[in-house]
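2024-03-11 09:14:02 INFO worker-7 job=invfold-0412 stage=load source=structure_tokens
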């Protein structure tokens, strides 16, 4: 039964399904929910984090998505967390979609702040799934419910 659960845990749905994620991952050492930024800064000191925020799926489109990511990058930097943001980079590069895979690959963890639309954003979902599949910590910042 344990092997079946472990196998199912890594068969992530294609579309964002946070209920499914909590069912299979809640209580696992890689998924941290409701974490204050200060705690993330202590846990991930001197590490690069992937900031997962919505890009073109936000109400204001890619420009607002990139601006929102930039604001969150500033907030995380103030808290002592160095980040790379697929949404921010996509916005500045004029891309149609954010590419979370390269950022997750070079990051020690993924940080998901309570940005508008985070639960529905495929790019946020992809970053979380990639991190968990790679056994990297995922932090859902306090306010993500």
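2024-03-11 09:14:09 INFO worker-7 stage=emit residues=145
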């Amino acid at each position: 039964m344990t092997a079946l659960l472990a196998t199912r845990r890594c068969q992530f749905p294609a579309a964002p399904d946070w209920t499914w994620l909590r069912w299979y991952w809640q209580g696992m050492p890689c998924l941290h929910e409701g974490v204050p930024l200060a705690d993330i800064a202590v846990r991930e000191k001197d590490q690069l984090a992937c900031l997962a925020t919505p890009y073109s799926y936000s109400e204001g489109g890619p420009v607002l998505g990139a601006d929102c990511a930039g604001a969150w990058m500033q907030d995380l930097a103030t808290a002592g967390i160095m980040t790379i943001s697929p949404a921010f980079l996509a916005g500045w590069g004029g891309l149609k979609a954010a590419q979370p895979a390269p950022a997750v690959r070079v990051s020690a963890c993924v940080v998901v702040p309570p940005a508008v639309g985070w639960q529905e954003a495929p790019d946020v979902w992809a970053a979380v799934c990639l991190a968990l599949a790679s056994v990297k910590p995922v932090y859902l910042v306090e306010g993500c419910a």
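2024-03-11 09:14:09 INFO worker-7 stage=report msg="Residues 48 and 132 are 16 Å apart (CA to CA)."
2024-03-11 09:14:10 INFO worker-7 job finished
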